[in-house]
């Protein structure tokens, strides 16, 4: 059985089957009483998530960032000029505790990527503002990330990507909605 690997995708055998197909087949053989059909989709999603995580970590590391620092910087960058948020808004955006956010902001201030400023609307409050260096760093990391993500999707045409996005949106909508009782949605890039 010859295996081929292309573009970081799962290896396929001469019959076009991938590792997930082989896993599902083995479970069906060993446990014919179980409906293992969810593995067809979710095992592939899990494997793709691992590839995406590796691509993201590599893109961020290339620009001296970690996942957490990119999350904070990208939340500030997406907020629009003057690219500042309260620590509470950052906590909501990145789904971490206030203590964790304080530590992260301290580290980003020390690196010169963000600054703290008094909040004119709240004498006791502060605003975390992206510096020029922080904006340059997160912009470069985002461009690198998008290039890597395009490579991950290279095997799909535009229409296939749009269809897949629609299907995944339908699948994830119940999980991302806070009203569904599952907690807050995950942070987005």
The tally of domains stands at: 1
Give the amount of beta strand, in percent. Answer: 5-15%
Radius of gyration: 21 Å
Task: Give the SSE order as H and E letters.
Answer: HHHEHHEEHH
The main β sheet shows up as:
3 strands, antiparallel
Physical arrangement of strands within the biggest beta sheet: 1-3-2
Fold topology:
Layout: H1 19-30, H2 38-62, H3 67-78, E1 84-85, H4 87-94, H5 98-110, E2 114-119, E3 122-130, H6 132-152, H7 158-176
Task: Tag the structure with descriptive keywords.
189 residues, 3 strands, mainly alpha, Arc Repressor Mutant, subunit A, disordered N terminus
In short:
The chain is mostly helical. 58% of the residues lie in helices and 9% in strands.
What do these coordinates show?
This protein has a single domain, classed as Winged helix-like DNA-binding domain superfamily/Winged helix DNA-binding domain (Arc Repressor Mutant, subunit A), CATH 1.10.10. The protein is 58% helix and 9% strand. It has helices at 19-30, 38-62, 67-78, 87-94, 98-110, 132-152, 158-176; strands at residues 84-85, 114-119, 122-130. The chain has a three-stranded antiparallel β-sheet. Helix 2 (38-62) runs antiparallel to helix 6, helix 3 (67-78) crosses helix 6 (132-152) and helix 4 packs across helix 5. It is elongated and about 65 Å long. The chain starts with 18 loop residues before the first helix and ends in a 13-residue tail after the last helix.
């Amino acid at each position: 059985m010859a295996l081929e690997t292309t573009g970081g995708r799962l290896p396929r055998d001469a019959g076009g089957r991938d590792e997930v197909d082989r896993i599902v087949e083995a479970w069906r053989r060993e446990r014919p009483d179980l409906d293992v059909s969810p593995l067809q989709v979710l095992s592939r999603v899990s494997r793709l998530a691992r590839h995406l995580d590796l691509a993201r970590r590599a893109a961020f590391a290339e620009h001296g960032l970690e996942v957490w620092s990119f999350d904070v910087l990208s939340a500030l960058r997406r907020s629009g000029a003057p690219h500042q948020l309260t620590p509470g808004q950052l906590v909501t955006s990145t789904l971490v505790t206030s203590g964790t956010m304080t530590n992260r902001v301290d580290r980003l201030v020390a690196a010169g990527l963000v600054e703290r400023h008094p909040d004119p609307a709240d004498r006791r409050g502060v605003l975390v503002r992206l510096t020029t260096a922080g904006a340059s760093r997160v912009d470069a990391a985002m461009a690198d990330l998008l290039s890597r993500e395009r490579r991950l999707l290279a095997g799909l045409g535009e229409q296939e990507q749009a269809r897949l996005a629609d299907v995944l949106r339908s699948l994830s909508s119940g999980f991302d909605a806070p009203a569904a009782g599952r907690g807050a949605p995950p942070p987005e890039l």
